[in-house]
Specification:
There is one protein chain. The chain has 5 helices and 5 strands, in the order E-H-E-H-E-H-E-H-H-E. The protein is of the alpha/beta class. The protein has a single domain, classed as HUPs (Rossmann fold, 3-Layer(aba) Sandwich). Strand 2, helix 2 and strand 3 form a beta-alpha-beta unit. The two termini are 22 Å apart.
Length: 143
């Protein structure tokens, strides 16, 4: 772990922000950098329904711009000397996070778990659980 960067996937929630403190602590401990990642869902639209007044591509671009704005705001609030890289991707959160985590230069993933259980756990994809089970590097799940 001592050689790779820390990957901190975020959805900009309070729970994810809590995990950032752990990511910074681990990065300082191992003297590595942090890579902050946000994944924007790929909008799905069927032109036959005429439900969207903009194209799925335009919607995705708007979502990416909003994520970039939130990322910029987050970086302005950080008080650290660590080198921080940011990534915004479009697609399925689990697949995109795993692709980054398994890219070879990530030493650890620090990810928040929203702590869903019961029916909510069944109906919602548990991103943290999937990443922890499939990543090749260590994963710290923070709740």
């Amino acid at each position: 772990m001592r050689k790779g960067n820390i990957l901190w996937p975020t959805d900009f929630s309070d729970t994810a922000s809590h995990a950032l403190r752990y990511a910074i602590e681990m990065a300082n401990l191992y003297q590595v950098d942090i890579r902050i990642m946000n994944v924007v869902d790929q909008p799905i639209g069927d032109e036959n329904f005429m439900a969207l007044t903009i194209t799925p591509e335009e919607l995705a671009k708007t979502m990416e711009d909003a994520a970039a704005s939130q990322m910029h705001k987050l970086l302005g609030q950080l008080n650290t000397n660590l080198k921080i890289e940011t990534i915004i991707r479009r697609g399925d959160a689990v697949n995109e996070i795993l692709e980054e985590a398994n890219s070879g230069d990530i030493g650890m993933v620090v990810i928040a778990s929203h702590g869903r259980s019961g029916l909510s756990h069944f109906l919602n994809t548990n991103v943290a659980e999937a990443v922890a089970n499939k990543a090749k590097c260590p994963v710290l799940v923070v709740k």
